[in-house]
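USER:
Before I trust my own judgement here, I would like a peer's view. Write it directly below this note and I will take it from there.

ASSISTANT:
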Amino acid sequence: MRRRTLLSSLTALTAAALVLTGCGAKAKDDPSPAGGAWSYTAGDGKTYTADKTPKRIIAHAYAAKALMEFGIKPVGIYADGKVGADVGLKGVDFTGVTILGEEWGKIDAEKAVTLAPDLIVADWWPVEKVYSGQEEGVEDSAKKLAELADVVGPAQGDSIVGVIEGYAKLAESLGADPSVIAAARGKFEEAKTRFQAATAAKPNLTALAIGPYDNTYAIAVPKYAPELLDFQKWGLKVIDPQKPDPEFPYWESLSFENADKYQPDVLLFDDRNHPGNQEKLAAQPIAKSIKAYAAGAMTTWPAYWLHTYSDYTAQLDRLTAFIQGADENIGD
């Protein structure tokens, strides 16, 4: 269970990639810009510069959504699943944008060559030390995308706000209107204030973020889920599971027989797989032993996809209303 490998011959692709790479931005380990017309310090710690501001951008779908909120539209995107079914891409108009892949680890790199990109944009994942779309396990041909132009983007860290701000900074460097960014940021700050007021009124409310699937009761580890870390910082007591999986510490995986190990006041289901994951738990005899489930104290959490101020504003307001109606004594 992840947070969330084309063609047999790549001779022509490799040749084209080498030509296009020479036209792209240049990375420098030294964080000081070298006087280029465009510069951006990415999540990998490198500063990228170019003589001209990049215009032809290929982006991971979530990164594309972030840029588009600020008026920067890519020429191509690649997604981890079907664009129309992805909860994190609802409402995005990708008309005129070439879709290069709708399955994790698969990117049509030959089609990407025809787009002549001068920049690739995606999240940097510090745990894996790689950008989205270049992780271990993706198809070799998908990795050829990084040969077409430099890959940049903000790092996932201990706050979604940091990721969004990283994209705002990148968008501004690419020509976004600062006033549009400021307006979106202001609405978000108001929503955050409302969320904090709701949690302050329920200081003992505990929550468990879960993603039941197959034969596993998966519990999210806030350390690797920046939205959950934000909720903790803003007053919601999201439970930290005791024994994260050694090989993939984003989760603690329990058998359903042990699913009542933690007794929170509310359950937060991974919204990427909802309602299927809630139905999975409902089918288990143990469900009635989980007090929050028995009480119907359940909602969803925005799992790993938040990249824009508008989405975060909407999610915080939804959760604020839920918290205001929650009982902080269920898990006792």
In short: Residues 12-178 form a domain with the Rossmann fold fold (CATH 3.40.50.1980). The chain has two domains: 12-178, 187-324.
